[in-house]
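> call design_seq(struct)
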């Protein structure tokens, strides 16, 4: 899942080399922390938050199949 999120994020931003995705897995939760470069936050969030909501939907569905809760955090 981390690789998929990283691929999506790198395709959306102006500075793909600055994208870093960390996966922090707990007993019942998986947190995906996406770090993007300065000025790229708007590219990940998208107009009206649509892009980030689509990514969160993918994470939620994939995490539920594993019996866990998926959380997406985006940091600039």
């Amino acid at each position: 899942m981390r690789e998929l999120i990283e691929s999506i994020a790198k395709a959306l931003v102006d500075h793909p080399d600055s994208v870093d995705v960390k996966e922090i897995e707990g007993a019942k939760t998986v947190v995906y922390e996406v770090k993007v470069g300065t000025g790229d936050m708007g590219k990940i969030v998208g107009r009206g938050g649509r892009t980030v909501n689509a990514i969160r939907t993918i994470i939620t569905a994939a995490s539920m199949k594993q019996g866990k809760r998926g959380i997406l955090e985006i940091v600039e």
